[in-house]
Amino acid sequence: MRLKRVHHVAIIASDYEKSKKFYVEILGLTVVRETYRAERDSFKLDLVLADGTQIELFSFPDAPARPTRPEACGLRHLAFDIDDMDCYVEELKRRGIEVENVRVDTLTGQRYTFFFDPDGLPLELYEKKDDINIKL
What we know:
Layout: E1 8-13, H1 16-26, E2 30-37, E3 42-48, E4 54-59, E5 78-82, H2 85-94, E6 103-104, E7 111-116, E8 122-127
Parallel strand pairs: 1-4, 5-8
Antiparallel strand pairs: 2-3, 3-4, 6-7, 7-8
């Protein structure tokens, strides 16, 4: 038995409309469907990336805040594979998104940087210049 890939990541937003705009209009994810569940007073927005990976964006009334930045136990950050770091960083900055300085991963030699969604969830851009195949 083997896991094939990540199917989706679920994110709970404190301001659903602001986060929806961020993920759709700024990051360019494609909307699959949007559902309102009256019994939960909750929206669920299904988004998809080009490779089929999905992000589920939720709104829940009175959801607790994330305890701390990336060092909190649990999910540390969400990383996106990109082809052109400089172009993507410039586009985010043009859209008013603050992006950290680009760094180089000392283990892989690949370039990466972080920025944050409207709720402060750390998002990483990872520029993969060559395929690093992991055999299981």
